[in-house]
Amino acid sequence: VYLMVPRGPDGEVLPGWTMADHRSAGPDSPLGGAYYTVRSWDPTHHRLTLWIVRHGYPSGVGAWVNRCAPGDQVALWGPRHGFGTGPRGRHHLFVSDESGFAAVAALLESLPSGSAATVLAETVDEDHQVALPSADITWLHRHEDPPGNDLLLDAVRSAAPDTDGLVAWGAGESRLMTRIRRHLRQERGMRATSVHMTGYWRQAP
Fold it and tell me: Do the beta carbons of residue 90 and residue 113 sit within 8 Å?
């Protein structure tokens, strides 16, 4: 879903605000927003759960999370369908930093019976690990290093699952995902249709 929130502490979501309003307003939109994978939906209590990274930047949804309170209003657009895990029996490689953990969790839960999954997950340290569905998970701790470094790329290079029938999905820093895609395509010989690396955020130059 696309989550829209007020840009500043005094902002508000206007009644009936839509994605069309947001797009037509362009950079002058009173709301900021970003796409998020739905972690869970409880239809009984009408409760939608999203995982949002508190990244410390003074703007965007992450900044809103630091100041929001119960009762604050947001606007939602969607849902839309993204990547699907495909037929039973495939081996899936998931590569992600914190920005993609909700998507990895949702994809693991959607795997057909009999499918194998390898997860390479980067975060700060053990205290920042999250609960993910059962899989072969390798946690990569960057400690004091900045996100978007080569930790995930090095792990992909070291991991050697058989690429026959392998499907790779990743989310993280845009340039890093491009490099991982290039490695899997050019050095590991995977087909373009089997490699899905998505830039969820972009490091400042």
Answer: no
Q: Compute the half-sphere exposure of residue 52: CA atoms within 13 Å on the CB side of its CA.
A: 22
Q: Give the Cα separation of 99 and 57 in Å (integer).
A: 14
Mind listing the pLDDT tens digit for each residue in 127-180? 999 999 988 999 999 999 999 999 999 999 998 667 788 899 999 999 999 999
Query: Which DSSP string do the residues of 83-104 spell out, in sequence order?
Result: ----STT-EEEEEE-GGGHHHH
The secondary element (H helix, E strand) that includes residue 50 is: strand 47-50
Q: For the beta carbon of residue 30, count every other beta carbon within 10 angstroms.
A: 16
Q: Which structure tokens are listed for 6?
A: 């007020």
> Residue 79, preceding bond cis, omega within 30 degrees?
yes
Lowest-pLDDT choice from 34-48, 58-72, 136-150: 58-72
**In 68-145, where does DSSP find H-type helix?**
101-110
- Residue 81, both tokens: 């369908």
**139/30 Cα distance (integer angstroms):** 38
Pair 17, 51: CB distance under 8 Å: no
Strands 136-141, 116-123: pairing kind: parallel
Does the pTM surpass 0.85? The reply is: yes
Report the alpha-carbon distance of residue 1 to residue 42 in Å, rounded. 15
- How far apart, in whole angstroms, are the C-alpha atoms of residue 44 and residue 16? 24
